Structure formats: structure tokens, C-alpha cells
Amino acid sequence: MQFIISLSFFIFINITWADSINENQILIPKGKFKPFFKELNDQDINILPFYIDKFPVSLAEFNKFLVKNKKFQKKNVLSLYVDKRYLEDWKSETLSEELLKEEGQKPVTYVSWFVAKKYCQSIGKRLPTIAEWEYASDSTNPEILKQLLSWYSKTGDQSSQKIGVQPPNKFGVHDMHGLIWEWVEDFSSVMISSDSRSKGDRTDGFFCGGGSVSSLDSESYATFMRYGFRSGLRGDYCMRNLGFRCASDITKEGTK
Amino acid sequence: MKYLFLILLVLPEISKSEEKPKISSESIYQIDQIWNTEKGKSLNLKDLAGNPAVVTMTFTSCPGACPLMVSDIKSFDKLLTKKEKKKINYYTFSIDPAHDTPQALQKFYEKMNLDKRWVLLTSDKDQAREMAAILGFSYKELGNGDFTHSTSLYLLSANGELLARKERSSDWKEFLDKFRAQFKKNKI
Prior knowledge:
The complex is a heterodimer of chains A (about 260) and B (about 190). Chain A has helices spanning about 1-20, 60-70, 95-105, 115-120, 130-135, 140-150, 205, 210-215, 220-230; strands at about 25-30, 30-35, 45, 50-55, 180, 240-245, 245-250. Chain A has a three-stranded antiparallel sheet, with no helix packed on it. In chain A, strands 2-3 form a two-stranded antiparallel sheet. In chain A, strands 5-6 form a two-stranded parallel sheet. Chain A is mostly helical. Chain A is globular. By secondary structure, chain B is an alpha+beta fold. Chain B is built from six helices and nine strands. Chain B has a seven-stranded mixed sheet with strand order 2-1-5-4-3-8-9, sandwiched between helices. Chain B has a two-stranded antiparallel sheet with strand order 6-7. In chain B, a hairpin with a 5-residue loop joins β8 and β9 (about 160-165). The chains are: A mainly alpha (about 260), B alpha+beta (about 190). The interface of A and B includes residues 186, 189, 195, 198 and 234 of A.
């Protein structure tokens, strides 16, 4: 009996310890990521180890943020930060307990890049970079690629599903694909500028459907779609199926 | 305490320019960001209000495009009358805060032979990304201290509203017209 108690105590300690360090984040080990588009120095990008949220940010979590940070509520938010569709599906400034019980575990969408960034900062986190996101999403895995193509070809609204229903990927991260699209810190670095298209910029092929010529992996049609989607975004855009999750650096001590 | 004293010294100097126009809800200057100038002064975006301004984003170790953007802006300045010249500012925000220390900015300032209407600003990666997203400026770090980036210039009103955007291929007409409209409105 004593053994059981001490064992359960041990497990309990372990769980709380892990949680307090990771707070629902997964440690992504270091690795190499093959950039999708050729650059001048088109070598693999070294990914340093980092933490990424296990799930996209939920309505419940985002609601908590709005309760604490009134300046990001619909009526107060800077107009530079969001377009007219910010939290379009919210009927009030914050969500009722009742609604949260029902829908709290759905991913928050209709949020802009600016607000997503502020959300992550408010809890000491940040948005993942494109390279980090792509790496953690295991998107070069052929199995995942296959699922992706079928997901991208669906027009239905997957954002109405709950987070964490799909099985995790090889890192233990859920819903990187198949639920919503997600903001990344450097989304605007995909495209050089709308203007540079007409001037023989090397991102040319990207827009002319020649993307598969310049992309390193011509199989990755799904990846191409993600990059294409990102390049069309603006920081204040709010869209029905666009949400986010946060990432964190690893400090010298090996924890956050 | 010593630092507090320094801050107090710096603040009145920056804010001494004429009374500030009201910051509107469309103003870039209402974004809460702190940037450092080439003189090593730390300022809030609000402190940049006062005159209409041409702004862009650069990095000082930039081999080609950035000096070109600066000389572009100078060619705009040449189109202005003497009176108009006194009522415009030129600001650059660094996309390379890791290398663009105030000292590096000061070097660039001297190399490009800039005058006191220019303020070169640097901050951190996070704020640079946010500024870029506000302006609609794209850039990408290539990893060897080099960047690919837009070459857009932006005209801001005296209180920081985005009035016009200019690409290298277009002429100065829109900038001139909109600047002059501001100039008249403020009956400067």
C-alpha cells in the first residue's frame, strides 16, 4: 500500500513537473529543414530545439486572454491590428461560460497576425517561424502528405471541429494539418513584394504556377499551397479558418 | 538614478518640436514601440509625429538596394521648395537589428551624408517584423547577414497615417501631391 502511495506520489510529481515546464508544449529536437523555395544560398536550415504548443490556441484560452487584456477586445482593438472580420463569429466581447462549455475546445480563428503575436507575448511565448512550423508539422512525411492533399481539396469548414481529436504526429503535436491554417511569425517573408513580381524577381515562378520548377521538392503540392496561402496574407487579415499556436525558445538551463 | 537623469535629459530634447498633432486611430504612431536612433536616443513612435515623413525599412550593411533607396528619397527632397523641405522628415527602420547598432546607423548616416531631418532607427527583430507588417513591407533574412526585401517607400501624414506607398518603378507624383495637400492643410 505504501508502495502504491509513493508510486502515485511519484507519478503526480512527475506530471506536475512536466506540465509546469512544458505547459502543454512539446519539445521539438534540433534538426534540419529543407527550405521549400530556392534562395540564393539554398542550404538546409538548421532548426534549433524549441517548444511548440501541442494544440492550436482554443476559444477558451483566447477568451481568457481577452478578459485579461481588454485592449484586444473587439470594441477596443487598434484598427491597424485587425480587419473588419476580427472575431466575426463572436456575438459579444467575451464568451459566456455556457458557450465555452460547448465550444471552448474549438480553435480560435478570425484572429490577425498582430493579435496572435500579442497573445503569445502575453504568456511569454512567440509565434513559430515558417521553418519551425513546417519542421514540427512533419509535413515531408509521405503519409501526412497524402492526407493533406485530401484535406486541402475539401471545402468544408474544419474549423468547427474540436482540437485534439486527430491523433498526434511523430513529435506528439496535434492538429498541425487538417483543422485550420496557422499564423507564423515570418509569413510576410515568403513573398518579396507585390511589386517585385513584375520585375523579374526570382519569386516569379511562384505566382505563375511554375512553383514546382523552383521548389526543391516537386512532390510537395500541399506545401506549395501553404506557402501560396501565406504569401497572400496581410498582418491584419482575420479569416474563418486561420488560427495559430505559440512556440517558445529554450533557455540556457534547458527549460523555458 | 543616474539613468533616470539621463532619460530626463533626453526626453525634452525629442519632444521639443512644435506641438504634436493628435494621433488618430489610423496612425502608425499609436503602436507602442520603442526604437533607438543613430544618436543612441531611445524614443517612442509617438515622438516621430510632427511633420509628414517618408519612411522605409533598410539595413546598413546592405550592398545595393538600401543606398539606392536613400538616394531615391534624396531625389524626392530635391523636388521640394525650401519651405517644404523644412516640414518633412525621413525615417528608416532597420530590418537587421542584430547588426544595426546606433553606432552602425551613425556610420551609415555619415556615409550617406544625411541631414538632421533624417532619423535612422533600430530596435529588435520582433518590433521590426511588426513594423513591416504594419507598413506592408516584406523581407526575408537569408542567414548570412543578407536580406531580400521590398524597396517600397511610404508617405506618412504628420500624425502617422499612411498616405501613399511608392514602388521604385513609379514616379513621385502621388507623394508630391499628398505631401503638398498636407503642407497646405497644416498651413505651415
